[in-house]
Amino acid sequence: MEALDIARWQFGITTVYHFIFVPLTIGLSLLVAVMQTTAVFSKDPGRKDAWTRMTKFFGSMLIVNFGIGIATGIVQEFQFGMNWSEYARYIGDVFGAPLALEGLAAFFLESVFLGLWIFGWGKLPEKIHLLTIWAVAVGTTASAYFIVAANSFMQHPVGASLNPETGRAELDPSEGSLFAVLTNVTTLAAFPHVVSGAWLVAAAFVTGIASWHMVRHHRKARESGLGTTEGTDHHHAAKDLFRPVVRFGVVAMFVSAVVLVISGDFQAQIMFKQQPMKMASAEALCETETGASFSILTVGGPDAFATECDEVTHLIEVPYVTSFLATHTFDAELQGVNDLNAQYKEQFGETVTDIHGNEVAADYRPNLFVTYWSFRLMMGLAAFSGILALWALWVTRGKGENARTTGSKLFQWFAVLSIPMPFFANSAGWVFTEMGRQPWVVHPNPDDPTVRLMTMQGVSSHPAWMVATSLSAFTLVYGVLAVVWFLMMRRAALKGVPLPQRDPETEELDTPTLSFDY
Question: In angstroms, rounded to a whole number, what is the distance separating the alpha carbons of residues 261 and 450?
C-alpha cells in the first residue's frame, strides 16, 4: 500500500471518529439550553424542579462529550501539515482563514462559557447563568459554520484565484476574497443540513435515554405497588421527570427531520450542478439518461462498483425520481458516469502528474460502491428515528391525569438501539460528501476551474512506513479514548437523577443548585 492510500485511511479514520462527538455536542448544547430555559421561566415549582434535574443530567453528558471531542479534533488540523503538506501549501491561504475564525471566535466562545456554566451553578444569577449555556450553543453552531465554510471551498472554490508565480490558490479581492468564501452557496446549502443532522443526533440521544429511564421507573412503580412510598416515587419519576423529556425529544426530532428534508433537497440540486459526477455515482447512473430512475437495490460483480460502472445491475428502481430530485422535473436529462469521465479527460487531461513527478493515467470516477451505499445509509438509517418518534408519541399519549407511560421492554431496547443510528447516518453523509468528490481534494468550480487539486497531488512525500506508524499510533490512542468515552457516557446515562424530596415542614423541593454533579 502506498503512502497516499495510508494517508487517506488515516484521514478517514480520524475524521469519522472525531465526527462521533461533533454533532452530539452541537445538538445537545441547544437542547440543554432549551431545557434550562424551560426550568428558569417555569412558575410551577414541580415543573421547574423536573427541568432543572434534566438540565444537569444531560448537561453532564454534554461535558464529557465536549472534552473528548476537543482531544480528537486537534489531530485534524495537524494532519494537514503532516500528511497533506502539498495540499496545505496550495490552499493554506484560503483554507486557514475560516479555520482561524473557528478557533479564535467560535471555539473561544463555547469553551469559555461552558466553563462559566459548569462552575456558575448557584453562584451566578439565574438568568445570567442561563445566558452562558446559550452562548455555548451559539458557539458550537458558529463553529460548525466555519468548518462547513472551509470544507465547502474544497467542494466549490470561490473567492480565490491561482497565483501563477507561487502556484498557490490565494484569496483574491476581485473574486470576493474571504466574504465570498463565507457566503459560498455551497456553504449556505450545507450548513442547515449539517446542523439539523446534529439536532437529530441529540434528539434521538435524549429520547432514547429518557425512554429507557421512563420504562425502568414505570416497571419499578408496578413492582413496588402504587400504594407504597417507593412505588409512588417511581411513578412520579416516570410520569413527571422522564415522560416530558421523551416528548420534548420527539418534538426536536420532528423539527430536525423537516429541516433535514428541505435542506437536503436544496443541497442535492446544488450538487447536481457543481459535482454531477458525485450524484451520478450515488445513483450508479452509468449512461446519460432522460427521466432517470432512483435505484433502491443495485448489485454487480467484484469490480462493478469499484471501477466498472457497466457491470452494475439495478434490481429495484423507482422511475423518474432521480431526475426529479436533481431538477424538480421528471424528464430532465442527467449525465452518466461514463460520459462525465470522458468529458473530464478531455477537459483536464488523460494523464496527471503525481507528487513524485510521475505521469499516471487520469480516472475521474469516485469509488462507486462507497458513494452508492453511503448515500443510501445516510437516508435509510434515519428511519430508526422516525419509528422511535412515532412509537414514543403513542406510548406517552394523553394529558394531565390521563398521561401515559409504558413498561414495554421492547420499546425500551428499541429506544436504546435508535441512539447510535443518527450517528451512523451523519458519518455516512460525510463519507458520501468526501468520497464522492474524489479524485479531487479541491473540486474545480464549473464556472472557473483554474483552482483545482487532485488528491494524489496534495499528499506529503513521506515514505509509506512513516505514515503507517502515525496511523497505528492514532488508531491505538483513539481506540483507548473510545472506550473511555463510552464508559463515562454509559455511567452518566445509567446513573439517572436523584428523585425529588420535599422538606416535611416547608414542603419545598430539594431542587439541586449548588453542585454540578450528582
Answer: 33
The SS3 call for residue 91 is helix
User: What's the pLDDT tens digit per position in 332-346?
Assistant: 888 989 899 999 999
On the question of pLDDT at 515 being above 60, the answer is no
Which grid coordinates are listed for 179? 466574504
Look at residue 67 and tell me whether its pLDDT is greater than 90. no
The confidence band for 516, taking pLDDT boundaries of 50, 70 and 90, is low
State which H helix or E strand residue 334 sits in.
Answer: strand 333-334
Query: How confident is the model at residue 514, as a pLDDT?
Result: 45
Task: Assign 304 a pLDDT band (cuts: 50, 70, 90).
Answer: low
Q: Which helix (H) or strand (E) holds 143?
A: helix 126-155
Q: What's the rounded mean pLDDT across residues 51-75?
A: 87
DSSP string, 264-329: HHHHHHHHHHH-HHHHHHHTT--S-EES--EEEEEE--TTTTTT-GGG-EEEEEETTHHHHHHHS-
Which of 379, 386, 376 lies closest to 418 in space, CA to CA?
386
pLDDT mean over 34-61: 92
Cα separation, 185 vs 213, whole angstroms? 43
Grid cell, residue 419, equals 441512539
CA distances from 478 to 20, 234, 470 (A): 12, 39, 12
Q: Which amino acid is at 447?
A: D
Whole-number percent of the chain with pLDDT over 70: 96
185 grid coordinates: 452557496
Q: Given the DSSP bridges, would you call strands 359-361 and 351-353 parallel, antiparallel or unpaired?
A: antiparallel
Nearest to 26 by CA among 103, 105, 107: 107
Give per-residue burial for 469-491: e unless 16+ CB within 10 Å, then b.
ebbeebeeebeeeeeebeebbee
Q: pTM for this structure?
A: 0.91
Distance CA 238, CA 7 (A): 50
User: What is the rounded CA–CA span in Å between residue 27 and residue 35?
Assistant: 13
Query: Which tops the pLDDT comparison, 382 or 221?
Result: 221
Q: List 353's β-bridge partners, or say none.
A: 359
Q: What are phi and psi of 198, to 5 degrees?
A: -65, -40
